Amino acid sequence: MPNKKVIIQESLSTFLQRHNAEPPEGAIDDIVLDYVVSILEEIGSEEDVQDSFDVEGFSEMMEAYIPGFACIESTLVTEWIFLLTEKLKTSESLSNGINCTVIRHSEFEIL
Hints:
Elements: H1 4-18, H2 30-45, H3 49-52, H4 55-65, H5 74-110
Helix pairs in contact: 1-2, 2-5
């Protein structure tokens, strides 16, 4: 199962290509990925997610690393962020399910 940064990098690259905001080579680095991870974790921990996400602040920060990001409509950015949050939750659930299956299988082998 790919880790969070890999999923985010692939999703961000696809999102940027769809909206004609091609980043310069190496622009999607660990700093950008760590920033997006922190935003997604913050959203995932909030109960009222719609009010907690500052799309303008997020777009400004991303614009500093990826020129053209601020030109993407805020509704599209918000939609992408929430879809990515759900994708990561699903990925984590699947990963946890696989671990449980392995543990259960191992328990049966011990008995």
